[in-house]
Give the backbone structure.
Amino acid sequence: MTKIAPDPSFTVSSLPPEISTKLQQHVEGEILVDGASRGRYATDASIYQQFPVAVLVPKSAEDIEVALEVANESGIPVLPRGGGTSQCGQTTGAALVVDNSKHFRKILSSDLSDPDQATVEVEPGMVLDHLNAHLKSHGLWYPVDVSTAAQATIGGMAGNNSCGSRSIAYGNMVHNVLGINAWLADGELANFGPYSESMGRAKALGDYVKHLVDDLKPEIDAHWPKVMRRVAGYNLDVFHPQSELPYTLDNSVNLAHLLVGSEGTLAYFKSLTLRLARLPKHKVLGVVNFTSFYQAMDSAQHIVKLGPTAVELVDRTMIDLSRNNPAFRKTIETALVDAQAKTVDAILLVEFSGDEHAPLLQKLQDLDALMSDLGLPGSVVMMPDAAMQKNLWEVRKAGLNIMMSLKGDGKPVSFIEDCAVPLEHLADYTQALTEVFSKHGTRGTWYAHASVGTLHVRPILDMRRDGGLKMRAIAEEAAELVRKYKGAFSGEHGDGLCRGEWISWQFGPKITEALAKIKTQFDPQGLLNPGKIVNPPKMDDSAYFRYPPSYQVITVQPKLDWSAWNVQNNPVTEAVTAAGTGGDPAQGLAKAIEMCNNNGHCRKFDADVMCPSYRITRNEKDLTRGRANTLRLAISGQITNTSDTPPAHLPLATQAVKEVMDLCVSCKGCKRECPTGVDMAKMKIEYLAQYKERFGHTLRDRLVAHLPNYAPIIARIPGLPALMNLRNHIPLFAKIQEWLTGISAQRSLPVWKSKHFWNQAPLPFASPEELAKHDKRVVLFADTFNAYFENENLQAALALLQKSGYAVHVAQPQKGQEEQKPFCCGRTYLASGMVSEAKSRLSALINHLATYANEGIAIVGLEPSCLFTLRDEALTMDLGEAAQVVSKHAQLLEEFLASEYKANRFAPNFKESAQPILVHGHCHQKAFAAVSPALELLKLIPNANPQLIESSCCGMAGSFGYEVEHIEASKQMAELSLLPRIRKESNAIVVADGTSCRHQIADGASREAVHIAKVLESHLAS
Ligand SMILES: Cc1cc2nc3c(=O)[nH]c(=O)nc-3n(C[C@H](O)[C@H](O)[C@H](O)COP(=O)(O)OP(=O)(O)OC[C@H]3O[C@@H](n4cnc5c(N)ncnc54)[C@H](O)[C@@H]3O)c2cc1C
Ligand code: SF4
Ligand code: SF4
């Protein structure tokens, strides 16, 4: 096989055919060679981008062995990857990237019998949270609690020598890894563990390093940072300990520690043995309030002497951000000594934990006494309550998210965000660095690990313009400070492309040379993640930037209004320019796509929604991040495929984009849960509009989109509804329909009715004039689905409102037109990419509703996807002031009633429920935080005990679950948690507001779910 030298720039060509063939023939997993797939693996959470030669998603250990064999034969390097959440470009490289996160996530063995000696052996793709979820019932955990715990894999954490918030108590990865079984570059497996027990290749390599270190001791003494948070280079100090916290309990040498922090450059981890810790039974929090940031930093060195498990900083910017956010105001105020005072400059969250509560309370008293001694009496808010603590930690996390969601090309850039300095210098260091920022026309928000002198800070830089220059200047000045205070330049996030060049600065030439020798000894051909730690590029080499100065966006006229993203920002004040002035050739669409900073938060499996497609496939392409990256590459012309070249103005109309959008169910989970608010559901509308413009609409598109048009016609023709319903009873009809339209024969369709909401006389709707006479009044929006297929929901809502004393007007077009074109929110058109039709339908509805909204009257709807179109998409369709006012008044029935209840205007008398109630929130309901009002109302029903089903999307998602090519994916989404929970509670009433959700529940669990309107109305006592 011919050897090739991969091009380190991001324009590298893909895998040579003979290598591709060999891989395809010999591996069980997936080989991804197309430009879009490679592009999705070209970035991590850093500012860098390098296209891999190809991507392997291995299914077996043999697949990885083949990859190493091919590397040895061809010279193409191998780059192991976990969640790809590194901040310094560690996982970007012109290599064969191997993604362990999909299939290598098993616990291989464990010894949990003695909690104090407990260990576990895991595969490298195991995610930290998933491991800890398993350990919880044993009263144990793996205590390296990185912020990315829901995404970070154990292999990646070991690769980076990651550190958590509680490292002061538990140490970093290097302190908690007991052994690593790894492939060396030539494919041989070696066991790295206690040096005294080592054998074979591992022992030989250990001996080699020991020999080097023996000669280097004076250099190490002189140059090695003595702080615990030093993660740069290789851990030579295994043989000459330097860390504040010894790597092993007995000061012995463990060769696995040489591999920890090696960033995939020395060996490929096959399995890792970890030391576990007892889960503390109790935690208390003391929140120290400071009127001076300097004082806060200066106090950290004294506070740590009390033995806390965490000391975390939240600075004034974050306090203010939280104060200004209605969702967080109350919580942040609980942390302030004087909730109203605006003088707090910083707070330190000081956590103590242990098995007994009383000693921890004493610790809080000690903290209070200490602060008095330091001249700050009464500055501690004591939080012994677990729920309050949890809320405050959430606010700390959310503050960072708000900071990261700054719009415009200037972004908070991570490159000196984890320098670690000894605590006695923390105050001077942070003050001096703040001055450096100011000198360079920017500023940073400080947060995180005060306990170990590692404060995170990201100055705002525009990498497309002068960001590279400023980055170097700031890094150089920061480095001088780090040297002055004898700290570590790389204290948490590793070296990667960003800090590699600083290794020689930190350690001097002799140690740097030794690192290169170690690399050569382990990996003579340079096959494992080259360019990291040894022979790194310059941090500001723009050839490696994701947004180099040459980055360009294709001119596009989007269908929706994205101008809110088309802005620039002031790096000091963070003020943004007027909407539409950002200079985006795609009118803001590109800048909205570019909001994805690759932090990988969407790779999660917790109780929230994002991202259902990834949850079922674990494919990068089915992830919000994968989609955003694909859109970014497409809109900036970086995916070139000669057999699929779209017209210049439709860059998203390609098979590559179609492939990633295929399983996006437009649930809006990302809109709410992505830290930067990437709104893929809205982006999917743009893609669909472009794609359908290029390739045309299918029959199915038209059937779905025009449903609101033909529903009244079908309902009106005698006998036709019954005829249509035959499809649900005669399998042949369903099969023919599937063949003609692609609507799955496995699904029943909504049942047509000749008697529907609009033709059930008399309709006791209040006229606008009658409405004007009432104090309690409301406008009800009857959507197509509830009006024509489930009119009992609208009837129930009407009855509930009227019995509760409301005058109800139901929005209807002019008399005589209602049978032809009832009002419609346009949702079905948007789902088919027919934006102008959606706009015309929505415009008629909004113009009608605006009359009432202008009077301050609530517009109430039942179907979440329809109602929230008024709150969301309608605002981006150029519908003017009317859309704004309607959006402010549009509410789900439960939102309206819950607020009326709080205002003492709705006082229902509910009778007892005979059954408990389970609630499934529609995705859009969750996206707009409209589930809690439902629970609040249901709690008013005696004995109902409503429980929220912790589920992602139900998988039906409008027409998605009916589509023949998606039915299996749809069922898998429902089976993730929704259907199993419903089956488990066979006696419960299941409440679901979404018509599709109800359908999925009926199909999958054979249970009839009901709209909340029916539950509330049927429980009215009188
Ligand atoms: C918002 C945010 C917050 C963060 N917070 C923290 C934090 O609190 N503490 C912290 O330490 N870091 C933090 N990080 C950085 C990052 O999340 C961590 O370093 C994390 O542990 C990386 O895990 P991963 O699975 O994504 O690894 P990846 O990024 O995929 O890989 C990391 C390194 O490990 C190597 N590697 C992966 N698998 C193997 C293997 N099988 N064999 C050999 N090498 C391998 C890779 O080549 C790479 O060099 C944060 C990042 C972000 C975006
Ligand atoms: S889509 Fe959002 S959550 Fe996912 S990686 Fe991008 S910014 Fe992070
Ligand atoms: S809209 Fe839903 S399915 Fe689509 S990317 Fe966002 S979270 Fe994933």
About this structure: Residues 7-12 have pLDDT under 50 and may be disordered. The longest helix spans residues 200-223. Residues 408 and 568 are 4 Å apart (CA to CA).
